[in-house]
Amino acid sequence: MAPARYWGAFSNGIQFSLCFGALAATTVNFAVEKIRGGWGWRLSLALAGVPIIDRHISYDH
């Protein structure tokens, strides 16, 4: 557990990360929905997997 003097910083950092992630996801989904031919949802789903793949590759055993 974090020391008491850092609780606010950690709480604000987590809140900022969650809000920024939600904003980024909404922006990407808004942009890819305009793709013609029904490829928007596929691209959105593929882009959602990019951070997971990055974490998996960069994981240090």
Element layout with pairings:
Elements: H1 7-32, H2 40-58
Helix pairs in contact: 1-2
Protein name: Major facilitator superfamily (MFS) profile domain-containing protein
Family: Belongs to the major facilitator superfamily. Sugar transporter (TC 2.A.1.1) family.
GO molecular function: carbohydrate transmembrane transporter activity
Characterization of the model:
The protein has helices spanning 7-32, 40-58. By secondary structure, it is mostly helical. It has a domain at 36-61. Helix 1 packs antiparallel against helix 2 (40-58).
Features:
single chain; 61 residues; mainly alpha; 0% strand
**Major sheet characteristics:** none
Question: How many beta-strand elements?
Answer: 0
Give average pLDDT, whole number.
86
Q: What percentage of the residues does DSSP assign to strands (E)?
A: under 5%
Structural class call reads: mainly alpha
Rg calc: 17 Å
Distance separating the two termini? 24 Å
Specify the helix fraction band: over 70%
Which regions have little confidence, pLDDT < 50, spanning 5+ residues?
A: none
Approximate shape: elongated
Individual helix count: 2
Order of helices and strands: HH
Structure in a nutshell:
The protein is mainly alpha-helical and 61 residues long. Helices cover 74% and strands 0% of the residues.
